[in-house]
Amino acid sequence: MSILNSGVWLLKSSGEFVAKEAPFSRAGGDEIVIQNKAVAINLMDWKFQIFRPHLPFPKHYPFMREGYGIGRNVTAFKKGDRAVGETNWFLTNDTRDSAFQNYSICKTSVCPLTLSTAAMGLCPTRRLEISLLQTTKPNLIHQVVLIWSGSSSTGSAAIELTVTSEFVKRLGATAVLDYDNESIAQDLVQTIKETFGEFVGALDTVGEEMTWRGCAEVVKGLGGDRVGSNLSAGFMNVPDGVEVVGVNYTAHLLNNKEIVEGVWGHFVPESLKNGSLKPASNPQAIGKGLEKIPEGVALCQSEISAGNAVVTL
């Protein structure tokens, strides 16, 4: 039986997103075909509309979906199971790996974006190398990290992974400062100096020049260290003693087996079970249908700073 699929495409540079027919793909051995029920529009997505790595461009971050087709080697899922995951179109340039369509392909162990991004910024070698939480009980590791924009989806996930306004303090942050203050860099340096523990670096969860430079200024004021940024590249004129590295390869999370097992094997299921992991970023539902996705991208560029736009399908 022929299955009709549609997706959202960017057909020309800096153009508008359009909904049109998309190819339907069947599951490989260790894959599942996902019938998408809802998709979250990430705060980074509008940047792809401007910088467009490839054309035509299908969008790509999923939110909630239902198993539709199961590969022959898959044992953990059956048709009709609900699943959450992250697709990897940005790396593969294959439309089957895009989520902003009715049907997507996903590896059976791939996980949602915000926690994956936070984990890849905090934990691996050559990033901030934060000690990984093994249980839902906070480990007293005496490390201090600066999370820039803790109210963003990745920022809130980073706070929950490291420490398990009131919004950010509710997640477990030790101190919360307003980055719009003119003295923010000096204030952060002083606050971190007064916080017990070893400073191990900063994580820029926004991914803009202003934010990674703000982090770099603070790190320099503390004697130098590393900044992880959601901006993948383009770090020019970095202050002496500071290293800025991009966090842009969450699709390679599966290669970091210790992080996968620690975060997704233990931390997430145990924390969801006892209620200590909070879905902190408030979703803003904007409607139903692929045609609403361009509206969500525009909202994420202009209005939404602490959460995601969500479209049901």
From TrEMBL:
Keywords: Oxidoreductase. The keyword Nucleus does not apply. InterPro entries: GroES-like_sf (IPR011032), NAD(P)-bd_dom_sf (IPR036291), Trans-enoyl_RdTase-like (IPR047122). GO terms for molecular function: oxidoreductase activity, acting on NAD(P)H. The keyword Oxidoreductase applies. Belongs to the zinc-containing alcohol dehydrogenase family. This is Putative zinc binding dehydrogenase. It comes from Aspergillus ruber (strain CBS 135680).
